[in-house]
Amino acid sequence: MKRIAAPLLTAAITSTLAISAHAENYPGVPALEELGKAAPALEDYTGNLVLGEVWKRPDLSPRDRSIATLATLVARNQTGELRYHVNFALDNGVKPAEISEIITHLAFYAGWGNATSAASVVASVFEERGIGEDQLPAADIELLPLDVETEEARETAVQKNYGGIADGVLKYTTEALFRDLWLRPDLAPRDRSLVTVSALIATGKIEQVSFHLGKAMDNGLTKPEASELLTHLAFYAGWPNIFSTLPVAEKVFEAKAAK
Amino acid sequence: MKRIAAPLLTAAITSTLAISAHAENYPGVPALEELGKAAPALEDYTGNLVLGEVWKRPDLSPRDRSIATLATLVARNQTGELRYHVNFALDNGVKPAEISEIITHLAFYAGWGNATSAASVVASVFEERGIGEDQLPAADIELLPLDVETEEARETAVQKNYGGIADGVLKYTTEALFRDLWLRPDLAPRDRSLVTVSALIATGKIEQVSFHLGKAMDNGLTKPEASELLTHLAFYAGWPNIFSTLPVAEKVFEAKAAK
Amino acid sequence: MKRIAAPLLTAAITSTLAISAHAENYPGVPALEELGKAAPALEDYTGNLVLGEVWKRPDLSPRDRSIATLATLVARNQTGELRYHVNFALDNGVKPAEISEIITHLAFYAGWGNATSAASVVASVFEERGIGEDQLPAADIELLPLDVETEEARETAVQKNYGGIADGVLKYTTEALFRDLWLRPDLAPRDRSLVTVSALIATGKIEQVSFHLGKAMDNGLTKPEASELLTHLAFYAGWPNIFSTLPVAEKVFEAKAAK
Question: Measuring CA to CA, which of B72, C108, C148, C232 is 20 to 30 A from A76?
Fold first, then answer.
């Protein structure tokens, strides 16, 4: 990697991604040059390869990359990095209401403590940027219409496989997840799938990727987007999680292409 | 979800679970309404679904739920949430001596750094609540009697499978785990199993669940308790870990029923 | 376990491992007796079993143990413990330049946020100990020579398996990993392998261990070292990750012995 003058993380982003002025002053976020005090090569890869090249690749928008990155950080409980990426997500066009729903979604898909820890960070960024509860979706809200046929088929299949093993799990999968959470309107089903798939890959739950990557593509995630998502997550979830995902993705892509 | 007036996490718990006055004042723990500043739906699900409903379901006691939740948080290094749940566990009847042994047990089953990080949080809660070392089990203590036959069968099987691969691992599995740690008297074997199974599920070590869930049932965990444990952990360890566990649990339940 | 008088973590280490005077004063690191306020048994196991016995076992040097421990903590984002172990690693002979490269290496193998969080801790230890950027490898540096034949065989195999699935992943695997990162000279290939294998085991990516453990042995890690690494990591990555690794290690050891 060539090393260029990249004095501050925020400055590097401003010049390469042309994000808003907010990026120049994310409170509480260390500057890129801080990395150089421990690892000059890490500073260089971060500024020039990750922020300067990967985030600008086509096929996945900066907004989608921010959603995938937030999901990764929340699923792995990386609250240190989260402050930067909540700010960056807002500057990349992810709406406060969407961030709010991402956190809530991940309570179920990554664990309750992950979501509540993340909520503290998000609340403090929202406060710094003057984002009030009026911009956030209420708890009680009109839900999207349910695809009754698909959902009843899912319930029947799961009941047949696992009825009597953990009935509480099946009950809340139906009542809280597929007939409530997934129908909340402020995060599109395609984006909930993007969050879910990213969280699964980030936490190494590869055996669950097949179902959710297929569902993501049914919900509108294109193959080029899914493919580029793997490239993006290689950096944020680590290479080993991606190499474990590649054979699963291959089968999902083949199955979708055969339709 | 309906949204009710649930001003503070501690107040919600007091009203729904009738825990002690300590809950009204857990030092350093953010209030439930803080969640609402990032995600009103998360505040609502937390107060009404998780604390208001899941924790009150039959088949698993609040004490056992607290043990499972502590194990999850320690195994995942979620020290932020841990402060609340150590307090909550004490209010739910988990003894200081048991919490002390849970942390020590998880050093071996989740990793040393997880236990030492957790110890800091636990030590500070103990200090706030005036719990001294006199309430904690000493390092050197009279052990429970060993089931020699079962342990020798285990040693023989493991030696046969893995002798010569990592003899230090086998040595300490015998000396430190099964002839020492598991025999420490201040956490019952059934509860050590509850901790171990919860930690395995929480960290996605599904391939190790079969052995330890079987052992848990041998140690006295009932099938309704194990089943409800999966429901509880769906919320704290995330849905994907539970769906990966369901087929394993099914086989263990079948094997126990066939006896 | 017998309990001996082990008043401070740093004192215990000084007496048992004869490390440098730095160990007596690691700023910001809690003393071993702090553990005893939560769990006297954990204090005892830490001082007498882990630090007093495991770290002194033959077949794996304290330096290598420190590298494996750093990799574990960074891969699991355990920044709390990291401060102690960066200091301990320096006292065990791991060079600042090596620590710098370990962090950078793990950005790719454990996730970007893990490395940047670790970099903050490392930077502050370096500052406390007066280690300046002049002791760290520059981003732009002359690389080790490439083993063209092996690398081209790898590229061909991966392209054949996964071409068209995520071409960005394959591109950066070649350009950023095997033709750049792995060739940076300040961390030997054998040590990069030690870091990679430790990170895989620490995060439960067992399905990726076979390739990297084999590569580690090709890079010079001996079977006794690899075997003792599993014993060391049992304590730092937790028993379940090691028991899942044992059958994989067995196959790799057999394959290498058959050559």
Answer: C232
